[in-house]
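Shapes recur. One chain:

:::
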Amino acid sequence: MSTQQQEPETQEPETQEAPEDPEMKGAESPQQRRLDEKQERMVDERSESEAEAEGETVHIKVFRYDPEVEGKQEPRFDDFYVPFEKGMTVLDAVMYARDEFDSSLTFRHSCRQAVCGSDAFFVNGRQQLGCKTQISELEQPVRIEPLPHQEVVKDLVVDMDHFYDQMHAVEPYFQQEDLPEGELEEQRQSRENRENVKMSTRCIWCGACMSSCNVAAGDNQYLGPAAINKAYRFAMDEREDEEIKEHRLRLLEQEHGVWRCQTQFSCTEVCPKDIPLTEHIQELKREAVKKNLKFW
């Protein structure tokens, strides 16, 4: 039996790996991760909006007529299917149809803020401003036509010359002969009088009221609600001379003036600026009667 003692085997020390730095993982900084997450959100939102646009469209039927092009001289309606977006107006839909489907589609528009009055259409049987009318509030298909009772030039564009002639016939500008003595003195107006004529100043010359008036449709010489409202704005202004006011009333008392109004309220109903046109016409009738009263 050997008495030699065996030496214990030596074990190599285990090597421990250094802890991994979380900021170095994938060689991506926190700032880069935030940028990547933001980009992913933007892509998701864009994809979602595109999916919604692809899934929902608006059916519009637009009146077409072009007397200068053979084959388009017969009035018709063209159908367009426009991708719907929240807040879309009739004008937005027509502009999309022009820009994406048919560049020959013709209509007037300018400010897109219900101020210029150039985009008045006949939408689903009612005179309305295209830029103010929400597509979501209309029944489909949305039928878009030019203003009735006016000559159509092309597509949705009508001839406005007669309307402007009637507006200018009532002399729609301020007239005052007795100016203040001081060079810098103002022509003052009371708050009460300003409130009385305030609504009449909101007219944007869109022609919607004239188009809705059955009397104007049958009497081409009738001044119409827009022109009479413009005359009201100046006739009821206390700063004008009495002689000028009587002159205005004489213009309105003619055969085709205020007395032709049949108080149908159609002009008031379609006015995009909520002007009480019928009320103004009736007030001018009362003023005309009072001016003609004689007391002995």
Summary: Residues 1-10, 22-26 have pLDDT under 50 and may be disordered. The first strand starts at residue 57 and ends at 64. The radius of gyration is 35 Å. The CA atoms of residues 157 and 188 lie 42 Å apart.
